[in-house]
UniProtKB/TrEMBL annotation, chain A:
Record bears the keyword Protease: yes
Coiled-coil stretches noted in the UniProt entry, renumbered to this chain: none
Enzyme active site: 24 (nucleophile)
Residue intervals of the Proteasome beta subunit C-terminal domain: 221-251
Organism of this sequence: Oreochromis aureus
A GO cellular-component term linked to this record: nucleus
Localization annotation: Cytoplasm; Nucleus
Known role: The proteasome is a multicatalytic proteinase complex which is characterized by its ability to cleave peptides with Arg, Phe, Tyr, Leu, and Glu adjacent to the leaving group at neutral or slightly basic pH. The proteasome has an ATP-dependent proteolytic activity. This subunit is involved in antigen processing to generate class I binding peptides. Component of the proteasome, a multicatalytic proteinase complex which is characterized by its ability to cleave peptides with Arg, Phe, Tyr, Leu, and Glu adjacent to the leaving group at neutral or slightly basic pH. The proteasome has an ATP-dependent proteolytic activity.
Biological process, per Gene Ontology: proteolysis involved in protein catabolic process
SUPFAM superfamilies: N-terminal nucleophile aminohydrolases (Ntn hydrolases)
Positions of transmembrane segments: none
Organism classification: Eukaryota, Metazoa, Chordata, Craniata, Vertebrata
SUBUNIT field: Component of the proteasome complex.
Gene that produces this protein: LOC116324037
Protein's recorded name: Proteasome subunit beta
Keyword vocabulary terms for this entry: Cytoplasm, Hydrolase, Nucleus, Protease, Proteasome, Threonine protease
TrEMBL record, chain B:
Origin: domain of life: Eukaryota
Gene Ontology terms: cellular component: cytoplasm; nucleus; proteasome core complex
A Pfam family annotated for this UniProt entry: Proteasome
Alphabetical list of Gene3D superfamilies matching this protein: Glutamine Phosphoribosylpyrophosphate, subunit 1, domain 1
Family matches, as SUPFAM superfamilies: N-terminal nucleophile aminohydrolases (Ntn hydrolases)
Reactions it catalyzes: Cleavage of peptide bonds with very broad specificity
Record-stated family: Belongs to the peptidase T1B family.
One BP annotation, GO: immune system process
Protein's name according to its UniProt entry: Proteasome subunit beta
Keywords: Cytoplasm, Hydrolase, Immunity, Nucleus, Protease, Proteasome, Threonine protease, Zymogen
Record-annotated active site: 36 (nucleophile)
Classification via InterPro entries: Ntn_hydrolases_N, Pept_T1A_subB, Proteasome_bsu_CS, Proteasome_sua/b, Proteasome_suB-type
Assembly notes: The 26S proteasome consists of a 20S proteasome core and two 19S regulatory subunits. The 20S proteasome core is composed of 28 subunits that are arranged in four stacked rings, resulting in a barrel-shaped structure. The two end rings are each formed by seven alpha subunits, and the two central rings are each formed by seven beta subunits. The catalytic chamber with the active sites is on the inside of the barrel. Component of the immunoproteasome, where it displaces the equivalent housekeeping subunit PSMB6.
Length: 257, 235
């Protein structure tokens, strides 16, 4: 299955640019009052870190957020599409979307593309039926579970979650559990790193804490790389006025009745 | 049958054999499978269905508490094995078609109808799908029925049927221990025992045993946790 087979033809056997993947650790936990989602912030392109502050927790609707692992472009666009569709639905029906609706739309779309869209998503949210956490795979398989982790660091994170999860956790223990899970992923997986983002969704509000914990290996840039306007000296100036001739002018009235 | 399921499309972060040499973090695309053990037994007045709870992506257990007994209609359930995405998609489509049909008829649908709807989808798209399904339920015309729709899209009614990768380990057990004329409790015990034996031997089956019995009274669901499973000799 080669989604970019056409692209490869253009390079005459040379190296095609590698897709940017969020080799990642993402995790989610259902607690007493809602759902906590967590993610690292590293995006890799081959063996280079392409983005150190990548946002992997995507907004779907005011009460639903989605963590994405896999190909960065795919997760970004899929969640954007989902968010737009749910917004239209909300406006049409006057109701808040339910998590299960988001899951069904995603499952439909991903199954239709037979795994060509490399998106491993964790959807979490709170709606009128309760607190929910789902995972959707790239082929369109759905699992509903109280806690889970995805991405290249999922095994490390899942060990922490399996050990520490209890039903009906309080808010602080739940945040700490997710933080520890993502930390384990960052420490033990090459594809995950940098900061930890957390998103807490409850019935009353959403807390998107970015970053929740910063990497201890932050570099301190000595100089600023932003240039102030007017810093570049110019040697000569030449002004060429463009003469425009009005050839035809027409006015069209717009019906606003 | 196309074996595209086991092709590694891209390299695996779970340190699959080819990746250790590359040492690079790249993303893997294993297919999510319910390799599974599923079973369904008819008794006079209903059916008993059972399944394990393991879903795998390659060697990793993606979900250890899966519910493979999927409701198609009030008194018709299906047991899913094969590709998780395929079977979930087919089950949803059939549930929709059957629901529509039932509303048109203004009657509860027949189990044979549900089985035929599964067979129609599984046979038409046999090249693209990997789905082994047991359809079981109760209707007024023929009572409890079990239909098997394996990979390829065959349809056959059987009094007792097993499916999935773990089923190969319990054919002998079934042949020796199934007797026609068992009652509901005996069927439940037989199913639980058979699934435990299969889960013990098959790497792709495990977790908990989910059972359900469907009869005229309705559907009764049970879960048998790992430490409560029937124990056999551990030689």
């Amino acid at each position: 299955m080669k989604p970019n087979a056409a692209l490869e033809g253009l390079f005459n056997g040379g190296n095609t640019p590698k897709a940017m993947k969020t080799g990642t650790t993402i995790a989610g936990v259902v607690f007493k009052d809602g759902v906590v989602l967590g993610a690292d912030t590293r995006a890799t392109s081959g063996e280079v870190v392409a983005d150190k502050m990548c946002a992997k927790i995507h907004y779907i609707s005011p009460n639903i957020y989605c963590c994405g692992a896999g190909t960065a472009a795919d997760t970004e666009k899929t969640t954007d599409l989902l968010s737009s569709n749910l917004a239209i639905y909300s406006l049409n029906s006057g109701r808040n979307p339910r998590v299960v609706m988001a899951v069904n739309i995603l499952q439909d779309m991903l199954y239709r593309y037979h795994g060509q869209i490399g998106a491993n998503l964790i959807l979490g949210g709170v709606d009128c039926t309760g607190n929910h956490l789902y995972t959707v795979g790239p082929y369109g398989s759905v699992n509903k579970v109280p806690y889970l982790s995805m991405g290249s660091g999922d095994l490390a994170a899942l060990g922490i979650l399996e050990d520490g999860f209890k039903p009906d956790l309080e808010l602080e223990p739940a945040k700490e559990l997710v933080r520890a899970a993502i930390k384990a992923g960052i420490m033990n997986d090459l594809g995950s790193g940098n900061n930890i983002d957390i998103c807490v969704i409850t019935k009353q509000r959403v807390d998107y804490i970015r970053p929740y914990q910063e990497s201890q290996y932050k570099d301190n840039r000595k100089i600023k790389y932003k240039y102030r306007p007017g810093m570049t000296p110019f040697l000569t100036e030449k002004v060429v006025p463009l003469k425009l001739e009005v050839v035809q002018e027409s006015v069209q009235k717009m019906e606003t009745a | 049958m196309k074996l595209r399921l086991f092709k590694q499309e891209r390299c695996c972060p779970r340190m699959g054999p080819g990746c250790l040499s590359a040492g690079l973090p790249v993303v893997c695309l294993f297919v999510v499978m319910c390799q599974t053990t599923i079973m369904a037994v008819e008794y006079d007045g209903g059916v008993v269905i059972g399944a394990d709870s393991r879903t795998t992506t390659g060697a990793y257990i993606a979900n250890r508490v899966t519910d493979k007994l999927t409701r198609i209609h009030n008194k018709i359930y299906c047991c899913r094995s094969g590709s998780a995405a395929d079977t979930q998609a087919i089950a949803e489509i059939v549930a929709y078609q059957l629901g529509f049909h039932s509303i048109e008829l203004d009657e509860p649908p027949l189990v044979e109808t549900a089985a035929n709807l599964f067979r129609a989808s599984c046979y038409r798209y046999r090249e693209e799908l990997t789905a082994g399904i047991l359809v079981a339920g109760w209707d007024k015309r023929k009572g409890g029925q079990v239909y098997s729709v394996p990979i390829g899209g065959m349809l056959v009614r059987q009094p007792v049927s097993v499916g999935g990768s773990g089923s190969t380990y319990i054919y002998g057990f079934m042949d020796a221990n199934y007797k026609p004329g068992m009652n509901k409790e005996q069927c439940m015990e037989l199913t639980a025992a058979a699934l435990s034996l299969a889960m013990e031997r098959d790497g792709s089956s495990g977790g908990v045993v989910r059972l359900a019995s469907i009869s005229e009274e309705g559907v009764e669901r049970r879960v048998i946790l790992g430490n409560q499973l029937p124990k056999f000799s551990t030689h």
